[in-house]
Fold this protein.
Amino acid sequence: MTSAPAADPHAITTADQLASLFGKVGEASIKKEVPFLHPHYRALIEASPFAVLATVGPDGLDASPRGDPPGFVQVEDETTLLVPERRGNNRVDSLHNILSDPRVALIFLIPGVGETLRVNGRAGITTAPDMLARFEMQGQLPRCVLVVKIDTVFFQCARAIQRSGLWNAPAADARAQVPSPGAILQALTASSIDGEKYDQELPARQRATLY
């Protein structure tokens, strides 16, 4: 009979243990969090071409990328953001989650800037024609728009970006160091998807379906 694995004697399981491990929160870390979009925070959003949207639903968590030219997330007012939902793979995991639980989190990145911006709030989904029209790109409208009501906003320091070297010039062979989309699909489908053919067709398909 196999015995149960021993519990980790070093596991952190309480808030007191965390406080002991990391210490006191700095004053700046507390005061930078506000329940509205300060003009400086608005400037970060308007300069950002990329964000990650996190949601939660009955089937679990989801974090997915969103991107467009800088300012693609529009500031409606100091407590409301508008996020266009472009065409994609039609999984719409984030949207399914929002239907059951409106809580969302966003993290905005700006190439070349170490600080990121974090937004927590609640989202709804709209297909109002006037709202869609505000996000037209290349003659195409988004499928819908997320209306995010802000609960809290704060900037994240640059340490993670600095440690990762995220904005450094990529290695010349970066693409060759990781499997291609076609190679992944071919492996996961026992070759029912032809990976080489998929990779050959992918650039043109992406250009034709970007919006």
Remarks:
- Residues 175-208 form one domain.
- The chain has two domains: 28-164, 175-208.
